[in-house]
Write a structure and sequence with these properties.
This protein has 8 helices and 13 strands. Helices cover 27% and strands 23% of the residues. It has a 6-stranded parallel sheet with strand order 6-5-2-10-11-12, sandwiched between helices. It folds into 2 domains: 1-26 and 73-113 and 157-229, 3-Layer(aba) Sandwich (Rossmann fold), CATH 3.40.50.1220; 28-70 and 123-150, SIR2/SIRT2 'Small Domain' (2-Layer Sandwich), CATH 3.30.1600. The structure holds 2'-O-acetyl adenosine-5-diphosphoribose. 2'-O-acetyl adenosine-5-diphosphoribose (OAD) binds at residues 17-19, 22-23, 28-30, 41, 45, 96, 113, 151, 177-179, 181-182, 200-202, 204, 217-218. Residues 17-19, 22-23, 28-30, 41, 45, 96, 113, 151, 177-179, 181-182, 200-202, 204, 217-218 line the site of 2'-O-acetyl adenosine-5-diphosphoribose.
Length: 229
């Protein structure tokens, strides 16, 4: 079977998307057709939606908190955590997912789209741990509205300086379970000189930019995919 070979001098950048958590029972955006209560995701995950109807936004993220709280890491998450234990700082894990399944498996990812179990006051801006389900829009002691700590459409993803620095120096780039539709993550593969691999059951939109594809589910392929020298 074909493997991803990782040599002693390699620096590995792993990018994960919604497909990574699909086998843990968290639906991908594609699976749900990007819809919730007949709203497109863009209509409830945006600064405009927050200004118009913050309770609707909290209803959406409360639902997502409930789904994610019931989920467990799958063998794909655990395989990446094992790879991180082997490679140490030579592996960088960047996820578009807002669930905490990578952490539960033992990884330390950069959450470029934020974290579902964090909120922040829109005035003070300091994120804090928060697993609450809100039936009313919460407020901070300072009076500001508390919002989900999520990168919405039109906002700048978190940690981009670090992401771009590591993209420049990595020698292996592996994207897993991401449709290659949403920017800026969809363009990462085109910005690196690394050997590039895609893992997932369907062709991503940016397929032409990858050197090699492994067709199948993350939880089935990842546990036996890496050959570390
Ligand atoms: P998508 O829902 O667009 O794509 C999910 C991808 O996962 C698809 O290409 C599927 O083929 C693949 N997939 C499904 N099951 C899989 C499995 N078991 N193993 C591996 N792959 C599997 O999700 P993303 O590309 O992550 O942003 O979407 C990117 C961003 O768009 C999200 O972070 C979110 C969304 O709008 C925000 O909320 C800001």
């Amino acid at each position: 079977m074909n493997l991803i070979h990782i040599k002693p001098n390699d620096r590995v950048f792993v990018l994960t998307g919604a497909g990574m958590s699909a086998e843990s029972g968290i639906p991908t955006f594609r699976d749900t057709n990007g819809l919730w209560r007949n709203y497109r995701v863009e209509e409830v995950a945006s600064p405009d939606a927050w200004r118009r109807d913050p309770q609707l936004v909290w209803d959406f993220y409360s639902m997502r908190r409930t789904v994610a709280a019931a989920a467990q890491p799958n063998p794909g998450h655990r395989a990446l955590a094992a790879l991180e234990r082997t490679l140490g700082s030579r592996l960088f894990l960047c996820t578009q997912n807002v669930d905490n399944l990578h952490e539960q498996a033992g990884s330390r990812p950069l959450h470029m789209h934020g974290e579902l179990f964090k909120s922040r006051c829109e005035r003070c801006q300091l994120p804090f741990d928060d697993t609450n389900i809100y039936h009313e829009v919460p407020h901070c002691a300072c009076g500001g509205k508390v919002r989900p700590h999520i990168c919405w459409f039109g906002e700048r993803p978190f940690g981009m300086d670090r992401v771009l620095r590591i993209l420049e120096v990595c020698t292996v780039f592996i994207a897993i379970g991401t449709s290659g539709v949403v920017e800026p993550a969809a363009s990462f593969v085109g910005q690196t000189q690394a050997r590039t691999f895609y893992v997932g059951p369907e062709e991503p939109l940016n397929l032409a930019s990858f050197d090699e594809t492994f067709e199948g589910k993350a939880g089935e392929l990842l546990p036996t995919l890496f050959d570390v020298w």
